[in-house]
Amino acid sequence: MKTKILKHGLYHLFSTLPLLSLLGGCVANSPQKEITEPIPEWFMNTPNDTGNFYFGVGEGRSKDVAKNVALNDIASRISVTVKSTLSSEINQKIAKGKELITRNSQQKLLAQVKAIEFSNYNIDKMIVQNNRNYVLVKVNRIALYKKRLKKLNVKMNAINAQWARYNSLPAFNRLNEVKLITAAVDEVKVMLPVISAIYTSFNDADYRGVLNQYINEMLYLKDSIVALFDRGNPPEIESVIKKHLSQQGIKILSSTANLSKKKRENLIVIKVTSKAVPKQIRSTNRQLKNARFAKLTITLTTSNLKKNVLAKNIVSVTNISQISYADAVSQTKKFDGLIKKKGIIAVLSGVMSACTQHHDCKF
Which end of the chain, N or C, is less packed with Cβ atoms under 10 Å? Predict the structure, then answer.
């Protein structure tokens, strides 16, 4: 009886082995297939931009990453439009070779495009497939345009206020305002192509007309100013000042004869005084062992023809000579270097320089 049962059991055991072997073979030999879902059609074929909306798509591990990719996609397209607009304008010149928009400003502009804050957007479509987030973002162009236009008008109003102050000043003092106004104008100019790219119906002609008027008037400001030097100025220092004024396009006069009324109004008279004292400087440098040092304090007074003081500045330089103290006093290299660093107008006026509020500038 046991033999029968044993045979019966063995029969069933061996009869199932081929099936188990077959199943085992199937599990071992068949490759595992990943089930992937198709990428959404709207992601592969992004909707075209319209006059009212930008469309952008993005993909990422999270919703925020995908959204930022989509917004960067839109910013890139705006950048392409702006580059196209600037390609011709960047090479345009206005009077005296000044660029309408400098190359440095172009780089700032493109960086500004990348940094656009898209506050008026919504995620139009989103899907998670294969552990990836896919989004379709829609940006309201009209809202974006109005936001940028508001910023533009704020800056434009500030420039107009600067210009009103500029016109209230004597010609020489206006020179100190030129750099500030030019920088503000340049900043507004790089905003215009961005706004035009966002809203194609935007007309920037009025803005450009005003800004170009300001720039052109400032460019000719130096041509309207003439300089006369007071008698008794230290010749070495006067010579350096004359050189830098001439490089800036300011004409140097020897007298006021035959001057027009306008030129008389814009005439500046420069008086220079200097005081030198010996200065002791300890140094382990053998070359300086026998050197002589002179601390030179230079007072620069700029007045108009009516002797009204327009600006006054005091600068100090320390000169060195291997010959003598007198030779150190007559040196101009440090004073010339100061002007190159600060600019002649800044040195004469004490404005827009690193000097203290008391106009004491050491170099």
Answer: N
